[in-house]
Design a protein that fits this description.
It is a single chain. 39% of the residues lie in helices and 12% in strands. The chain is α/β, with parallel strands linked by helices. It has two domains: 192 residues, Aspartate Aminotransferase, domain 1 (Alpha-Beta Complex); 252 residues, Aspartate Aminotransferase, domain 2, CATH 3.40.640.10. The chain has a five-stranded mixed sheet with strand order 2-8-7-6-5, sandwiched between helices. Strands 9-12-11 form a three-stranded antiparallel sheet. The N and C termini lie far apart (78 Å). 46% of the residues are buried.
Length: 470
Amino acid sequence: MKHQRHPLAYDSSELPTSWAEPWKIKMVEHIRLLPHDARQQAIATAGWNTFLLPSSDVYIDLLTDSGTSAMSDRQWAALMTGDEAYAGSKDFYELERTVQEVYGYKHFIPTHQGRGAEHLLSQILIKPGQLVPGNMYFTTTKFHQEYAGGVFADVIVDAAHDPTSTLPFKGNVDLDKLANLVTSHGAERIAYISIEGTVNMAGGQPISIENLRAVRAYCTQHRIPLMLDATRLVENAYFIRKQEPGWGDTSIAAIVKELCSLSDGCTVSAKKDGLVNIGGFLAVNDDLLAEKARALVVAFEGLHTYGGMAGRDMGALAVGIRESLEYDYIRARVEQVAYLGARLERFGVPVVVPYGGHAIYLDAKRILPHLDQETFPAQRLAAELYLEAGIRTMERGIVSAGRAPDGSNYRPALELVRLTIPRRVYTQSHLDVTSEAVARVCARADTLGGLRMVYEPEHLRFFQARFEPL
């Protein structure tokens, strides 16, 4: 008798292909959505600055991926066996070996977090008046460069300032811009070239190996040091494997090692790729620079064998660095970001493309075209998302850019709201809720007014500034 196909059966070619996170949940933390009137009171008390909201008042927290990751069982095991010796902890030596093997640098100097490493690097490399060319500024990096007397100069490709450009490597350096800058000022006026992997302020955009090799060749020719911000270099490596010809069959670990080999050193905030809640480091190849950095780390961070980190945190970081290189993990991490971006675009929400590695960026200029940039549209949009659904995001626009020497606001081409996804924390259901909330806010965007700044700290104002509605 001929087999009859069941009426509800599907041919395998008709079935969709889904994916699942490469982890399962062992422990949960309860979250709650405050009533709307309580959210109104909370954002007013916080001066319309999402950084000033208590986390207990937040439902879905997309403020940052810095120190907000969920650690693995292997990392928790490392915490339990941490060596809290003041000097020479076993966890320091394990972390040092891990950094040397994964990143390839000779010297490792631990710090309490990334900005500690930025401070050390700026102090040992920058002389007052020197320029620091880079592929777009980052807030704390630029502050430390300027605090040391340097002047940041943007040499990123023009496409990075265009949220609609689909160039796959918008983190690339414009070699003509770099050459013109060096020719105009002289190589001796250049402290070093500052290269960030997956450029944060451009929307998490990666740099290609081809471009970094060209920058390295130029630096070698002109005897200019090249330093990486390798905070999200693993995410950058994933984009290279996925998008850059010739690298599709290469391991993430090998790509990370190749990127680092093209530089003289790096700073790292371990609170991102490192999958830990605190920590960072500076790594260099030059013996003299390492000696200077170790002298400073004792003064500003802690002993050179802990640098502000507890032994248990160094142990967890050593495990986290190795976990970050696992392809299943990094694929899930970056593609979860893409999932949110695709849902938002289906709702017609203007976002920065291509999608970044750690966050989706809303284009506040296109969402709120009726608001002048001086009325802080991205700050307003971030606050409105909290009001709508208890979702905390952050501004990346004119507030973050700060002020020029003449006192006027820098007016960056990009006025963005960053929806940053912590690693191994939220499910796709959380992202569905987020995308729907963003779509509802965008549907009534023309009813939203701007803000005025009523308190402004001297430095890095986006952390503590306060606002009120116009």
